[in-house]
Write a structure and sequence with these properties.
binds zinc ion; mainly alpha; 62% helix; two-stranded antiparallel ribbon; 3 helices; 125 residues
Length: 125
């Protein structure tokens, strides 16, 4: 076994891999199971990234709230519009991320529900 570069994405992969684990480029005889595992990993990574983005968005919202507190001198004066714009954008972004997460989790659920799910695939979901 040696390490080669994927011809599609140039990442380092095993020469024995049937498909690139990063981009899905097919190097050899790819079975339906290989493809399923690849899709499962992609989905898992997507859910992970979406979770990270949702934490980031929450942090931005809290920062906007802090800005509002600071700008209004501890809620005793009128604040400028800036903090509200920031909190509004963060709230919208949060809803979008939650919707994407919901869809990705539904896909994962559908994948898990498949009857002939191998152990190898289960590990990746
Ligand atoms: Zn690749």
């Amino acid at each position: 076994m040696s390490i080669i570069s994927c011809p599609e994405c140039n990442k380092q992969i095993s020469s024995r891999a049937a498909l690139c684990s990063y981009c899905g480029f097919q190097l050899g005889d790819v079975t339906e199971q290989d493809l399923e595992i690849f899709r499962a990993r992609k989905l898992r990574d997507r859910i992970y990234r979406l979770n990270m983005v949702s934490y980031l968005v929450i942090t931005v919202f809290i920062a906007g709230f802090g800005w509002y507190w600071w700008d209004s001198r501890g809620f005793s004066q009128l604040s400028s519009i800036g903090p509200f714009v920031l909190m509004g954008l963060a709230a919208i972004a949060y809803l979008v991320v939650r919707a994407l997460l919901f869809r990705a989790r539904q896909q994962r659920k559908a994948m898990r529900a498949k009857r002939q799910l191998s152990n190898e695939l289960r590990k990746n979901l």
